[in-house]
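Let's study a protein:

___
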Amino acid sequence: RWARLHVSVCVSFWQSHAMPPVVGIDLGTTNSLCAVFDGDGPRLIPNAHGEVLTPSVVGVNDKGQILVGATAKELRVTRPENCVWAFKRWMGTDRKVELAGHEFGAQELSAMVLAALKHDAEAAFGEPVRDAVITVPAYFNDNQRNATKMAGELA
């Protein structure tokens, strides 16, 4: 009962003070998603393709453009050497991968996914998103948690 009252008070405060949106992000190994808690409760934010799940995949097309999400996932079939996935498993390590002549670590790759989710949220809200809560698995150590925090700051 107290939790419901607390949530209700927080939502009322948030609505009456026109605070900028704070999003919650699940940065997943396979897929990632973004949500917001508004006056109607939690709401998943769709990406540019209208889906709520964004594949945690980064790739580079033939023109050298960085692709994130579903378009990058398509490269896994046609140009697997030009994309990378499951990099969340490298968080907190020095492992790097080369894409289009540039080396990227898990932090930079995760930041690209986070930036795409941020862009989708900003498109949905029509205003900048400056704050987010990013989930990490319970088994992540300090290096992995700090790497995830750095990825969020880079995004």
Observations:
- Confidence is low (pLDDT under 50) at residues 1-12.
- DSSP finds four helices and ten strands in the chain.
